Amino acid sequence: MKMISHNDYRRAAKSKLPKMVFDYLEGGADDEVGLQHNLSEIEKIKFAPKRLLDVGSRNISRTILGKSQQAPFAVAPTGLNGMFSSNGDVKIARAAAKAGIPFSLSTASNASIEEVAKACDGELWFQLYVIHRELAKQFVERAKNSGYQVLILTVDVGVNGYRERDLRNGFSLPAKYTPRTILDGALHPAWSLNLLKNGMPKLANFETAELNDIEVQAALMSRKMDASFNWEDLRWLRDQWPHRLVVKGINSVEDVKRCAEMGIDGVVLSNHGGRQLDSCIAPIQILERAASSVDISVMIDSGIRRGSDIVKAVALGAEATLIGRPLLWALAARGEEGVGEMIQMLKDDVDRTLAHIGCADINQLDKSFIYS
């Protein structure tokens, strides 16, 4: 099938993955109202194009957290990518490096911090879940020693979102084999054969002798994070990490300001893609106010599907967006090649949108290109 949009990759991913795995990728919290809300709030934003301007050549490169990148977006941290394609973390990281955009590795990755660093020569960011402090300190040290340039602290998972699809399917790692899951696997033979060949994905960052603890891994899978982690603990983390530090999961202008006051280098406005709190604002709703209130990097995720969505976000003040599900659909559909195709599709859409609205350089975008 010819792939001409993210929806084509989504359909291909759905056909290739067992229902349990696709539901994990696709699902949200509770009634999944938040998933649609993220999309609808972005859809409400309309462009106000400008005409008779020279857009014969266009620039989509963008400085993100002080470094020039080839596009105004980065790869969002996503867990269990090995469930969608063998060695999925490395495949996405390699595709991102080839495309000249940053890749974010999740704490819940199936390739370790060190493995991805050895396999990829692009810019690497590491996303940290705090389960307990000593473990967090070890992860920070490993990321620092492996050359990761940015640390992303995710703060919206004090407890796990109530993901009904996963609960109904009995989704877990390692997988629990039931007649239903065995039948589902049999109906997706390519995925199952790949699993037999490469083995069940593991939480690779916990496979060291010090961290090979079933209780710790179970805590991560059930999102039993350190719910007591607070602003003072964030100061501790700031002291631990010598490079750029980003806080992800912010949903209020007040919290953005507080991060800036504490010397945090950037924030990601995010509701975890609708996977945590169902009745939550879409990050795009506070983007303009948040970005205008501070001098630090303000990025955004949750609901970004097309290059035009990225252009909207930058026009409203975002330094960049993070891309999650579309890249995972592409990974499941066509592996590393598919991820590269999706990144290029997004780049092309950003470029085309700039031409349509009369802006030759993404760095010249502002609110004047948005109808209000």
UniProtKB/TrEMBL annotation:
<keyword id="KW-0285">Flavoprotein</keyword>
<keyword id="KW-0560">Oxidoreductase</keyword>
<dbReference type="InterPro" id="IPR013785">
    <property type="entry name" value="Aldolase_TIM"/>
</dbReference>
<dbReference type="InterPro" id="IPR037396">
    <property type="entry name" value="FMN_HAD"/>
</dbReference>
<feature type="active site" description="Proton acceptor">
    <location>
        <position position="272"/>
    </location>
</feature>
<feature type="binding site">
    <location>
        <begin position="324"/>
        <end position="325"/>
    </location>
    <ligand>
        <name>FMN</name>
    </ligand>
</feature>
<dbReference type="InterPro" id="IPR008259">
    <property type="entry name" value="FMN_hydac_DH_AS"/>
</dbReference>
<feature type="binding site">
    <location>
        <position position="270"/>
    </location>
    <ligand>
        <name>FMN</name>
    </ligand>
</feature>
<comment type="similarity">
    <text>Belongs to the FMN-dependent alpha-hydroxy acid dehydrogenase family.</text>
</comment>
<feature type="binding site">
    <location>
        <position position="275"/>
    </location>
    <ligand>
        <name>glyoxylate</name>
    </ligand>
</feature>
<dbReference type="GO" id="GO:0010181">
    <property type="term" value="F:FMN binding"/>
</dbReference>
<protein>
    <submittedName>
        <fullName>(S)-mandelate dehydrogenase</fullName>
    </submittedName>
</protein>
<dbReference type="GO" id="GO:0009060">
    <property type="term" value="P:aerobic respiration"/>
</dbReference>
<feature type="binding site">
    <location>
        <position position="106"/>
    </location>
    <ligand>
        <name>FMN</name>
    </ligand>
</feature>
<dbReference type="InterPro" id="IPR012133">
    <property type="entry name" value="Alpha-hydoxy_acid_DH_FMN"/>
</dbReference>
<feature type="binding site">
    <location>
        <position position="272"/>
    </location>
    <ligand>
        <name>glyoxylate</name>
    </ligand>
</feature>
<feature type="binding site">
    <location>
        <position position="163"/>
    </location>
    <ligand>
        <name>glyoxylate</name>
    </ligand>
</feature>
<dbReference type="GO" id="GO:0005886">
    <property type="term" value="C:plasma membrane"/>
</dbReference>
<keyword id="KW-0288">FMN</keyword>
<dbReference type="Pfam" id="PF01070">
    <property type="entry name" value="FMN_dh"/>
</dbReference>
<dbReference type="InterPro" id="IPR000262">
    <property type="entry name" value="FMN-dep_DH"/>
</dbReference>
<feature type="binding site">
    <location>
        <begin position="301"/>
        <end position="305"/>
    </location>
    <ligand>
        <name>FMN</name>
    </ligand>
</feature>
<feature type="binding site">
    <location>
        <position position="248"/>
    </location>
    <ligand>
        <name>FMN</name>
    </ligand>
</feature>
<feature type="binding site">
    <location>
        <position position="129"/>
    </location>
    <ligand>
        <name>glyoxylate</name>
    </ligand>
</feature>
<feature type="domain" description="FMN hydroxy acid dehydrogenase">
    <location>
        <begin position="1"/>
        <end position="372"/>
    </location>
</feature>
<feature type="binding site">
    <location>
        <position position="24"/>
    </location>
    <ligand>
        <name>glyoxylate</name>
    </ligand>
</feature>
<feature type="binding site">
    <location>
        <position position="127"/>
    </location>
    <ligand>
        <name>FMN</name>
    </ligand>
</feature>
<dbReference type="GO" id="GO:0004459">
    <property type="term" value="F:L-lactate dehydrogenase (NAD+) activity"/>
</dbReference>
<feature type="binding site">
    <location>
        <position position="154"/>
    </location>
    <ligand>
        <name>FMN</name>
    </ligand>
</feature>
<feature type="binding site">
    <location>
        <begin position="77"/>
        <end position="79"/>
    </location>
    <ligand>
        <name>FMN</name>
    </ligand>
</feature>
